[in-house]
User: What shape does this take?
Amino acid sequence: MLGIVAALPQELGDLIADMRAAGDIETVTLGQRDYTIGDAHGVRAVVTLARIGKVAAAATASALIHVFDVDAIVFTGVAGGVHADVQVGDIVVAQTLLQHDLDASPLFPRFEVPLLDKSRFAAAAGLSDALALACEAFLADQGDALQNRFAVVRPRVHRGLVVSGDRFVASHDELHALRGVLPDALAVEMEGAAIAQVCFEYGVPCAVVRTISDTADAAAPASFTEFLTAIAGTYSSGILSRFLRSRV
Ligand code: SAH
Assistant: This one.
């Protein structure tokens, strides 16, 4: 059983509709979340919306592991680009994840999860490779259409560090502070590293794929909202369908 999680409904695209079309689905409500169980492009999956933030994401990952007995978790959604090379419309597949707002210094080094001796959590290599291949295939098939429809510029796939925190980053100062302390950070979001920590603690593989909706600057609120309503679903559906079919 594969757990598939997004924060917001637009970030799942057509996945639940596709599961309904493929056969019987079952919905379980738990902790104010709906978990939809069924066939996702040939893969047995439980799909849910975590809502926004690290606590929501951690609670959801824990339920997926303990109640639904998932073998792995994939998170899909949008994020702000942090690195100068990462543009709106690009896709980032996480290799490692870190909580950029975690700071128990001077007791522990900045960003380290106290008593876990770790600040960076690795995404599972096999799942991440398969996601990256699905992203490349999606852009190869749809890249021109995306450029024409949404005025994104030659979208690319990046792999590396994704940072998470309970803040929507939307200012030049905050963006540059992040770049200063974490020069290898590619993207910022609000859930991924929390899922990665819970999955690490329980030995469950996880992967995170993020489409860039904004560049975490003053234009981020408008860019995020426009991207989420107009485009995010197209990306998620295109990436998830290719990824899931490759797992069958
Ligand atoms: N007001 C919004 C809240 C969005 S929070 C609403 O109406 O729902 C932003 C969501 O997208 C989070 O789930 C986060 O993971 C991701 N995200 C996109 N851009 C981000 C950015 N610049 N900073 C932090 N998170 C971002």
About this structure: The beta strands are 2-6, 26-30, 33-40, 43-49, 72-81, 91-99, 121-122, 157-164, 185-189, 206-214.
